[in-house]
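Make up an example, fold above all:
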Amino acid sequence: MKSLFFAAILLVSLQSFSAPVEQALEAEQTQETKANEKSTETTEQLQDSAAVITMTPQNQSAEKSTPPEIEPTQPIVVDPNKDNMIEVVDTSKVLGNEAAKPALQPKNQAEKAQAIAQADQAVAQAKEALTLKQQAKAKQSRESLAVIEQLIKAYNARNIEAFVGMYDENVEFYAFPNELLFKGKEKLIARYGIMFKKLKCIKSSPIKRIVYGNIVIDHELSETCSTDPKVVDKRSELVSSYEIENGKITKVLFFR
């Protein structure tokens, strides 16, 4: 009888002792489950945040880099000083951008004949204008040549009056390229008048002459006699350029 009583007491003690242990185990498992769920939520939040941080600049960059709709035939200029600003250049007024207009073609035989006649008339007028210009230049060249020939004749004859008469009152004498030697008839008379009286003979002979309008360039051989009129004791070659206006020499340039 006592054995049964002690066995009953022992069973009750074991049941009362195992209940708190099971509760403690269940509580510990619940806390672990909650901790795992919380850790999982935290990990997912971190992953979502990283995805947001990673995707946001790309999306923004993609949104900014998307250009507005423009016509594909117009050139695009990107200004580096502006934040992805795109400017469309208007090429409608660029020189040479316009299409060439076709020439008008005559519609019938009468119009063709009229066009040919107009072209022939234009060519004839051009030839006439060129011919008149050439004729005027040729006349000027003949007049300039005549002045120089009279000058050389007076020079060889040592005729100071005829020689000076071929020059303008304000004639200028230069040494190449632009050295002014003297100016005016008075100094011309003083220089050449003494030379004409001193020398026994003077002779200038052109070696080569170029005449173009009012310009005459003479490459000449100069011979002089200092004591005997029949004995040439000095010879030299000279190049002189003469500018003639209104029948008078206005400028002389000596090439040394």
